């Protein structure tokens, strides 16, 4: 019951910041926001948010969580472009999902360089296991599993119903 109450509080908070939230939102604890949202988050129906989840929707960035997405704990989702998690996606603990990083040109401080972004698309019924990192430009197809402590970049080709692991990920086997 407490999960639903915290979900209602989060829904009210997000709605007051112009975001769209479906029904049945549940929260173990109220998530952190590195920047207050401003209409740049959409959360579907029956989403569960665990402890220690941090959202970082930059100005111009968009975070979209589909229906029945489950975020376990100690997860960061940072968006300067767009991050989409499809319906029924599971994200285990200690996962980082970031669609941007710093520029790295010589002759200028890294912290002063513009962020380089590319959207992240995570399909439906995806499981991202503990400790994984999903970086800008990553595309994860429906039904894929990303093994623990793996790294997915834009150069990784992640097909439907494949089990992937490694740094960067490689196909281990197909789901049966």
Write a structural description.
With 176 residues, the chain is mainly beta. It has one domain: 3 Solenoid (UDP N-Acetylglucosamine Acyltransferase, domain 1), CATH 2.160.10.10. 9% of the residues lie in helices and 36% in strands. The protein has one helix and 22 strands. Strands 2-5-8-11-16-19-21-22 form an eight-stranded mixed β-sheet. Strands 1-4-7-10-15-18 form a six-stranded parallel β-sheet, with helices on one face. β21 (162-166) and β22 (169-174) form a beta hairpin. The longest helix is centred in the N-terminal third of the chain and has 15 residues, at 2-16. The radius of gyration is 16 Å and the shape is globular. The N and C termini lie far apart (37 Å). The model has no long low-confidence stretch (mean pLDDT 96).
Helix percent band? under 10%
Low-pLDDT regions: none
What is the residue-averaged pLDDT? 96
CATH homology-level superfamily:
Hexapeptide repeat proteins
- The percentage of residues in β strands lies in 35-45%
What does the main sheet amount to? 8 strands, mixed
Name given to the CATH architecture: 3 Solenoid
Give the CA-CA distance, first to last residue: 37 Å
Instruction: Count all strands and give the number.
Output: 22
Number of domains: 1
CATH class: Mainly Beta
Shape: globular
Short structural description:
Helices cover 9% and strands 36% of the residues.
Note the topology.
Elements: H1 2-16, E1 20-21, E2 26-27, E3 32-33, E4 41-43, E5 48-49, E6 54-57, E7 62-65, E8 70-71, E9 76-79, E10 82-85, E11 90-91, E12 96-98, E13 100-102, E14 115-117, E15 120-122, E16 127-128, E17 133-134, E18 139-140, E19 145-146, E20 151-152, E21 162-166, E22 169-174
Parallel strand pairs: 1-4, 2-5, 3-6, 4-7, 5-8, 6-9, 7-10, 8-11, 9-12, 10-15, 11-16, 12-17, 15-18, 16-19, 17-20, 19-21
Antiparallel strand pairs: 13-14, 21-22
């Amino acid at each position: 019951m407490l999960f639903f109450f915290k979900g209602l509080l989060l829904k009210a908070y997000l709605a007051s910041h112009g975001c769209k939230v479906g029904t049945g939102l549940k929260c173990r604890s109220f998530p952190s926001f590195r920047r207050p949202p401003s209409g740049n988050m959409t959360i579907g129906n029956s989403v569960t948010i665990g402890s220690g989840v941090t959202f970082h929707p930059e100005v111009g960035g968009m975070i979209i969580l589909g229906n029945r997405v489950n975020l376990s704990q100690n997860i960061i989702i940072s968006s300067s472009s767009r991050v989409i998690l499809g319906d029924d996606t599971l994200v285990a603990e200690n996962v980082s999902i970031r669609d941007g990083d710093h520029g790295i040109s010589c002759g200028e401080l890294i912290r002063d360089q513009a962020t380089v972004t590319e959207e992240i698309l995570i399909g439906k019924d995806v499981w991202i296991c503990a400790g994984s990192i999903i970086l800008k430009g990553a595309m994860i197809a429906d039904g894929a599993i990303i093994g623990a402590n793996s790294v997915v970049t834009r150069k990784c080709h992640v097909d439907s119903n494949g089990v992937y692991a490694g740094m960067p990920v490689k196909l281990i086997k197909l789901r049966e």
